[in-house]
Design brief:
Layout: H1 11-23, E1 27-28, H2 37-43, E2 52-53, E3 56-57, H3 62-71, E4 79-87, E5 100-108, H4 114-129, E6 134-140, E7 143-148, E8 154-163, E9 167-177, H5 179-199
Parallel strand pairs: 1-4
Antiparallel strand pairs: 2-3, 4-5, 5-9, 6-7, 7-8, 8-9
Length: 200
């Protein structure tokens, strides 16, 4: 747990995600928890602060871990998944925005067209749909979020990126914890409230 944010990480959800995406063709790999600064900067928001260990930024997402491996020649073209902690200097800290959390991240570097992106979003939507009703919405040009249908909690982000040092890739959130658990807890709270109101 993280301070006032009292929803614990569900390692069961992470394990279920790893098994699910393995069956869908995403090879599970061990990825570094730090990256060289150039790999970190490719996806870091403008003005973001890096947490460092021995001069190397801790990754804010497994996407940076993948980019580090691509840049060093350690990752052949294909589709992969990794599970890493994510460290972020969040300006606002609450139940959904933490300094650190755990995430299973997906990457596709062989087939990187929009049709493949649509396929991956559909796979992820099916995974999250096992737990809560979800929808897909475009959060920026070419970037899509899977959100809870009831209150628009973002469960994952999806899109295509390109960089001269690493090429073109599809990024995708497989499962982030405790964000999924937080969404589920809110779903349960709403259901209890409806049951209570019906009983009045």
């Amino acid at each position: 747990m993280d301070g006032a944010n009292n929803t614990p990480i569900s390692y069961q959800h992470i394990a279920e995600a790893i098994r699910y995406y393995s069956r869908k063709g995403f090879q599970e790999i061990t990825a570094p928890w730090t990256s060289a600064r150039p790999a970190w900067e490719i996806t870091a928001p403008k003005g973001a602060t890096a947490y460092e260990i021995e001069g190397r930024p801790l990754v804010a997402s497994g996407e940076q871990s993948f980019l580090e491996m691509i840049g060093t020649g350690a990752l052949a073209p294909g589709c992969y998944q990794c599970t890493t902690p994510c460290f972020r200097d969040e300006p606002v800290r609450d139940e959904l925005h933490r300094l650190y959390f755990l995430k299973t991240e997906l990457i596709e570097t062989r087939h990187t067209d929009e049709a493949r992106l649509v396929e991956i979003i559909a796979l992820c939507k099916t995974f999250f749909g096992q737990y809560v009703n979800v929808a897909v919405e475009e959060s920026a040009p070419g970037v899509f979020d899977i959100v809870t249908a009831a209150d628009r909690i973002e469960l994952g982000s999806y899109g295509i990126r390109e960089h001269p040092d690493v090429g073109r890739w599809i990024f995708a959130t497989g499962c982030a914890e405790p964000r999924l658990s937080t969404a589920l807890a809110r779903h349960v709270q709403r259901a209890k409230l409806r049951t209570f109101q019906t009983a009045l």
